[in-house]
Amino acid sequence: TRAPPNTPTRFTRDGGEGRRISTHKQARALQTHNMHDHRPIELEEGWDTMAKGITKLKNLLEGLPETQFTPEEYMRLYTTIYNMCTQKPPHDYSAHLYERYRESFNVYLSTQVMPALRNLRDEHMLHELVKRWDNHKIMVRWLSRFFNYLDRYYITRHGLNDLNDVGRLCFKELVYAELKRPVKDAILSLIEKERDGETVNYSLLKKVLTIFVEIGMNSLEAYETGFEAALLSTTSVYYRKKASAWIEQDSCPEYMIKAEKALLEESERVTRYLHPSSESKLLKAAETELLATHESALLSKESSGVSSLLVQDKEEDLSRMYRLFKRVPGGLTPVAEAFRKHVEEEGMGLVRSSEGAAAGASGDRAGSGGAAGSSTPAPTASRESQDLQFVKDVVVLHDKFYAYVQKCFENASLFHKSLKEAFESFINKGVAGSSSAELLAGFCDTLLKKGGAAATSAAGAGGEKLSDELVEERLEKAVKLLAYVSDKDLFAEFYRKKLARRLLHDKSASDDHERIVLAKLKQQCGAQFTSKMEGMVTDLQLAREQQSKFDQHLDNLRNSSSSNLPSLDLNVTVLTTGFWPSYKFMELNLPEEMEKCVSVFKQYYEQKTKHRKLTWIYALGTCHLTGRFQAKSIELIVSTFQAAALLLFNRADSLTFEQVQEQLNLPEEDVMRCLHSLSCAKYKILLKSAGEGQPDGSPKMIAKTDVFTYNHAFTDKMRRIKVPLPPVDEKRRVLEDVDKDRRYAIDAAVVRVMKSRKVLQHSQLVVEVVAQLQRSFKPDFRIIKKRIEDLIAREYLERDKDNANLFRYLA
Q: According to the model, what pLDDT value does residue 30 have?
């Protein structure tokens, strides 16, 4: 014999279970008694017993007067089913009992449940449905205990639905199938009321929707088809109406606040009573209507669109815009495009403003008529100030929008790309004939040279001195802008020229700042970009050590009373040719005093290094002379060329232009610049007069027939003055050097590509060459074509005989 599956429990009025009241001893006694009766139980006889128990269970569920199940009753019902299922054929009634188990539910649902539900509507129907479903689950649980033996053997052997599933299927077929539409409509009505701000019974909604889930028996099909599809449809309709009204009456920030609130409420709605699987679908339906459909209109609103938010610095609204449209597939692309256009327009405004200021300054200079007594440095300083202001404005603009990308747009790569494209579009335009590479190099130069940092402060040229931390911060921001400059090689050449001037003329404010900038440039552009500049800085450090050793060598000569001592103090900076910009070498005829100094250093250097050749670049030298005038002696700081020219007048009172040129052995252009600085500029140390029989020329121009005399009457309030040379057009020389270097770079790139590919079409060759060179500069396609033709002429490449656009590499 087998014991019953569950100990009987007391049945309570509310459908629950009371305390346990039986013991195993009682159950075994009842079972033993029944097992001794070996007479087969007929179907109708046994079912009468079961029908009485089922009727009692129904009465209890309906709340009718009825006593609770006793342990004896429970055991009698269970044993009856057990005996009817274990009798030998033809008295095994398992199949009949399985069908009558189903029929018991159908009868109860048809006669008592459905009549109670059909007469109700809306919320009342939902309350009754929840009650009936709870009662039905209790009925299923109790009947499945009575009929448990069917589950354990008959149902398992025949692959039928278990007793719990049969009970739920009956409810699904008789109750759910008929009421699912009105129940769905009632739920949707309550949800719409909640969306409109009314208070609804969340607990009721959750219980009703749980029925949709449980009725599916381990599947969400009933929930999805019977309720969720309609929910998504009504959600779309609801928010379509709302969005149409909001977009007309609200500003962009107000619309986004309402949309964000609505989406948050939908999310909370899922948490309160919907199934978790509905969240993504529900939010997608709302997002489509609230955001995707009206995105273009929202972003382009006249006084509150994305451009207005950027102009008004509405960071909170911009952050909300990003959060909202991030939810929509492809929703951020229009926002990023609007951001790019706005940044580009702001940048072009800076370009136009700077060009207008430059044009105004040019007009002022033209209006002054270029009078003979006018001074040229002032306009130059004004132009430099304008260039500095432009770079400062660009840095401020970049800081502002870079902060937006970080804070408002969560560092999204899409917005970094938009920022990059916007800055590239205007920063490479150039301003008043100056490229962005030149302006950026000039800005860094001003920050790095002595006294230059104050010129970049907010107060302008007379601004207060910047701290080291602030200088370093500005340099870092300037280097960041280099990422947007296409002609990085041009920046490198301008920067190298200015670095050389700072180092050679001791104008660098801080060696640490120089090294910091080079480290940042190296990090951003690669080691090759800064290798020569780092070599220049190292050269200066070695030159200082070299000078210290040379001074010690001179001290040794003095101690030995050598006659080979120079009569002047001499500082020599030895440079490595490959690191520094190319300088024009000129064979200057040095005065005797200078010649002896050079000779002493040559002897010293040749003793130290046997295999190096010194080339003297006199154009970079500086001399300190003492000019003895009638009023007083004045120390003159001049270039080597100027010093050599002035020393000529120690031996002659006056010299013609041709005599000066002959004795100096310099080109005519350099002699003119030298004599102009000494006789026509601010400090007239020499007096210029026309040659015999020649008409007087312009006081600001040098003629080959002019005669120059030492000005004994010259004086100045300062005891030390610096006499500058007229500025030369270094920009033109830099551009020429860069063009030459680019030709070499294109040649090398073409050869590299062809060497690896052997045979290549013209278009593909151009694409690969551009890809190799774009980190340094953007090569012109016409230049690439010319270089290819040149390489063909030099027999590095050849054209295919049958296809003129096909090239072959010649080993």
A: 43
Query: Helices 94-108 and 122-146, interaxial angle, to 10°?
Result: 160
Q: Which two tokens stand for residue 365?
A: 């200079």
At 575, phi and psi to the nearest 5? Answer: -115, 150
Query: Around Cβ 354, how many Cβ atoms within 10 Å?
Result: 21
Structure tokens at 807: 């090239």
Token pair in block for residue 676: 């102009």
Q: Alpha-carbon distance 4 to 32, whole Å? A: 12
Specify whether the CB–CB gap between 41 and 91 falls below 8 A: yes
Residue 808, token pair as written in the block: 């072959």
pLDDT of residue 280: 93
By CB neighbour count within 10 A (0-12 exposed, 13-18 middle, 19+ buried), where does 782 fall?
exposed
Q: Collapse the DSSP code of 128 into the 3-class scheme (helix H, G, I; strand E, B; otherwise coil) and give the result.
A: helix
Question: 639 phi and psi, to 5 degrees?
Answer: -80, 170
Sign of CA dihedral 86, 88, 91, 93: positive
Beta carbons of 97 and 103 less than 8 angstroms apart: no
Q: How far apart are CA 706 and CA 276, in angstroms?
A: 98
Question: Which residue shows structure tokens 């690191």?
Answer: 579
Average pLDDT over residues 711-739: 87
- Alpha helix (H) residue ranges in 408-487: 413-427, 436-448, 468-481
Nearest to 427, CA basis, from 476, 486, 359:
486
Quote the CA–CA distance of 215 and 208 in Å, as a whole number: 11
Q: What is the DSSP string of 176-202?
A: IHHHHHHHHHHHHHHHHHHHTT----H
Positive or negative CA dihedral for 114, 119, 125, 127?
negative
Q: Are 434 and 492 in contact, with CB atoms under 8 Å apart?
A: no
- If one compares 495 and 383, the residue with the highest pLDDT of the two is 495
CB hemisphere CA count around 378 (13 angstroms): 10
Could you tell me if residue 252 is left (phi over 0), alpha (psi between -120 and 50 degrees) or otherwise beta?
Answer: alpha
Chain segment 636-668, per-residue pLDDT in tens: 999 999 999 999 998 888 899 999 999 999 999
Confidence of residue 4 (pLDDT cuts 50, 70, 90): very low
pLDDT for res 1: 38
Tell me if 418 sits within 8 A of 449, measured CB to CB: no
d(C-alpha 65, C-alpha 75), whole Å = 22
Residue type, position 191, single letter: I
Under 8 Å between Cβ of 588 and 665:
yes
Integer Cα distance of 256 and 247 in angstroms: 10
Closest CA to 100 of 152, 35, 157, 146: 146
The predicted model scores a pTM of 0.77
Rounded Cα distance between 27 and 48, Å, is 22
Would you say 299 and 338 are in contact if contact means Cβ atoms under 8 Å apart? Answer: yes
* 579-614 confidence digits (pLDDT tens): 888 888 888 888 887 888 888 888 888 888 877 888
Closest CA to 103 of 49, 148, 47: 47
Place of tokens 């009505």: 189
C-alpha 466: how far from chain center:
30
Give the closest residue to 672 by CA, choosing from 644, 701, 651, 636. 701
Residue 745: φ, ψ to 5°: -65, -40
CA angle 47, 51, 54 (to 5 degrees): 135
Structure tokens at 679: 């006789």
Identify the residue with better confidence: 811 or 278: 278
Asked whether 635 and 624 are in contact (CB, 8 A), the reply is yes
- Residue 326 CA to residue 333 CA, distance in Å, equals 9
